[in-house]
Amino acid sequence: MVVEKLQVAYGKVQALWDVTLGVPDGAIVALVGANGAGKTTLLKTISGLLRRKSGSITYDGKHIEEEPPPEIVKRGVVHVPEGRKLFPEMTVIDNLLMGAYTVPQPDRPQRLERVFSVFPVLKDRQKQIAGTLSGGEQQMVAIGRGLISGPRLLMLDEPSLGLAPILVEDVFRVITEINRLGVTVLLVEQNTQHALSLAHKGFVMELGRIALSGSGSELLADSNVRKAYLGL
After folding, report:
1. pLDDT > 80? residue 102
2. Left if phi > 0, otherwise alpha if psi is -120 to 50, otherwise beta: which for 20?
3. Which of 3, 15, 33, 195 has the highest local Cβ count within 10 Å?
């Protein structure tokens, strides 16, 4: 996927300024930065939830910036939003199947089994009400709901937010596993150390602009990144 000179505004308030970045197929790409830097706005624009003022978004060489969200999902670009956004009164399996609305009925059992292979605990909890799960298990459901649609590019917005440290480790292990299954990952994450440690490529956003880019290891070694985001 390639984003070029993307500009996005909320009314008269400009949120993104000429954002340009590329997400190579098969890679984990981390997008880091302070709250309000524009990271979530970028993901929402890619997934069609927001419309740009100018610029372009191409995937597989085709422009998708004018397409509605369901068509973008059908192309394989899937967004797992910040805060899980589950249906708490519904069961785990019903929450997962909400992500399968673009998947033909005969293919859904196989897609469910793929999710259960990544998150075995969800197979045991599939009849449980989602709102009664732990925070970590709810995050598994949120990611699983994205996986069931069969993404080729999975965009994760703050998947470790609000989780205990031991569960944070589990989330990043799962992200690596998903990537090994052939899924490209665009990861927005406040945990800069973890995100850049597993990323093949990274971008730092500041005030709606791309301030720095490089490999994950290069950004971790950058003195400005270490001072601003790692406290070193």
Report:
1. yes
2. beta
3. 195
201 touches 27 (CB < 8 A): yes
Q: Is 92 exposed, middle or buried (0-12, 13-18, 19+ CB in 10 A)?
A: buried
Query: Which of 221, 141, 152, 155 shows the shortest CA–CA distance to 188?
Result: 155
**SS3 of 131, please?**
helix
- The predicted pLDDT at position 232 comes to 55
Cα 7 versus chain centre, distance: 20
pTM over 0.85: yes
Whole-angstrom distance, CA of residue 147 vs CA of residue 165:
24
Angle, CA of 81, 188 and 169, to the nearest 5°: 95
Q: Structural domains in the chain?
A: 1-76+152-158+188-232 (3.40.50.300)
Secondary element (H or E) of residue 206: strand 201-206
**Does the pLDDT at position 83 exceed 90?**
no
Phi, psi values for residue 79, rounded to 5°:
-115, 120
Distance (Å) of CA 16 to CA 5, 24, 28, 67: 9, 21, 22, 19
Mean pLDDT is lowest, of 73-77, 119-123, 156-160, 168-172, for 168-172
Structural element, H or E, at residue 224: helix 223-229
Structure tokens at 27: 């890679």
Sequence length of the chain is: 232
Q: Name the token pair of 147.
A: 């996986």
Q: Token pair for residue 122?
A: 């969800």
- Read off the amino acid at residue 198: L
Within 13 A of 213's CA, how many CA atoms are on the CB side?
A: 10
